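[User]
Protein folding is very new to me. Any chance you could explain this protein sequence and its structure tokens? I have pasted everything here:
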Amino acid sequence: MASSRYVCQSCGGVHSRWVGRCEACGEWNTISEEFAAESAPLGGKKRPAKRRAQKSNILELVSMDGQAPTPPRKVTGISELDRTCGGGLVDGSAVLIGGDPGIGKSTLLLQAVAALSENSRCAYFSGEEAVDQIRMRASRLGVANAKLELASVTNLNDILGVLDSPNAPEIIVVDSIQTMYIDVLESAPGTVGQVRACAQELIRVAKQRGTIVLMVGHVTKEGTIAGPKVLEHMVDTVLYFEGDRGHQFRILRAVKNRFGPTDEIGVFEMTDRGLLEVENPSALFLADRRGDISGTAVFAGMEGTRPVLVEIQALVAPSSLATPRRAVVGWDSARLAMVLAVLEARAGMQLSGNDIYLNVAGGLRISEPAADLAVAAALVSSLTGHAMPGNLVVFGELGLSGEVRPVSQAETRLKEAGKLGFERALMPTRRSGRRPIVDGMKRTEIDDVHGLTAMFSDETREPTQMSVN
């Protein structure tokens, strides 16, 4: 007999009765009734009363030669995807890809499995599109001749039946996990119980058979993957596909990866032929940049092991409102408030009565603190009306006392800037005594925000401290 319970569709919290507000996460109108069959666990078979004890397969962490075995990887041939995953896909891994509707998740996975189908048996299971629709998209992407098996299914038991067959595929795509359902649960597809149960069964099969499972996940209006948060804990890799519909650039960002770094990104360009790899993102992000305009600064950032140069734009305008506006695109609004407070309290800049608009050009989202100095430079440039030099890059972290703190991988940032023709750099003072050596790069090192504001004063346009390499 099926038992009833009330589950929050936002956090997965279980309640004994229906309530308007979830006590676990505080969300309103997210409680729904779900039914679970007590007599049949997942898989649709009754559990026997007694089970014979089985011997566990226990393996040593280190092999006989004293080295830990390296898990084999399947290279997709899409270098940006392989970079984000840590060098390729690991056998038996579960990868979850989330992103806004229409951002290119299905397109990327179709291109990836089409390339992998040359050497591995791959299957694409879609719960949102018919087989003919997938074929039309494959024809548009130029992969219509790939040896790829297609199926339009929503019942998870159909997928599990294919995976249990002797000639099971090595790599599968489930698009999307929110459209799948399992028979033993009476709740609708997309609910917390169904998403958790379907993902758990797919991951179990992946670990037992060594199958690579690529799952597409819908996102909420906040940008997080819909369903229970435990879904991200269950899988091995979580990738977010980011981008602005107004830009052709797409960013594939790893937020969790058990087989590689968690701060790598892959950059793609959306075209009518699908997603194309961007080998030099800095050149594309700065392609439409115009020099000698106040309120702009070029930031030399790091995304994982890759240096990326982007343009930060700021506009400081007089406000007629009692509470001036603060609009931020591509950066943390709380971080902007801190930079504004430091400029006012430590540098004497009058910014509180102005509207502040900040934008990271190209649709990239920056999260590292090294962008503080570039944001401050763009704000001061817009306020004073003095443009930054066109051949100058900026990076550094700001402290609450106004000091400019050193950041890691300064030499890598400068080398990338030198490749793109930049000749000057505004950066923190290197307190360790080591100087980054980059030929032809003129370095301007400052200790605090006073060195920054001195660049925009009428009396002197150069900082008080300078170190030329």
